[in-house]
Amino acid sequence: YTLTGTLQLPAYITNPSNLTASVQVAVAEEVLETVNLALNQPTEVSGLEVTDGRWTGDKAVDGVKNTEESRWSSGIMKQAGATESDPQTPQWFVVDLGEGDNAISQIVASYYKKVYPTQYEILVSNDNVNWTPVKTMTRAHNGPLDPVDTINLETPVHARYVKLSFTQLNIAAAGNALSMRELEVMGTKKAVKPEVDRSTLKA
Description:
By secondary structure, the chain is mostly beta strands.
């Protein structure tokens, strides 16, 4: 950046020779690192397949994608032998990216074996109440094992919360609950400076 301007000298300083001075100011633009904003962040889920402490929501944001235990398994979505026309019970997963200006550029969802969703929606929010749709995802039934959905956002989305809202599970899966190995939300975080209450300042 180039800054130009006039410096007004105090009245007690004289400049009879009309000397001039120049000042060069360098302003460096802050470069933010792209990281997994969801890593080890708080989660909320619609339900759990088991109640013995396994496969909880936090296991889907722990950075581990290649073990049997590190995954979230939702509440039951379908019945055994379900067809595409049979109704299913929706499930959802929410991660809180924390305070600050979160600029989301990519979302990666890794699923476990064949218990993956065939229909779901990705939404974002700043208050965990009002949600804005970002992307609707579909995938064929009876597809390959361990599918990964990678969503690249052309324009970064600024939000604190990311929600995956699942409406249909692969009917060819032996299991009846969706299972997600890992949710990665890639982007940058810029800290928000606290506002100063000027009413408390004294001269």
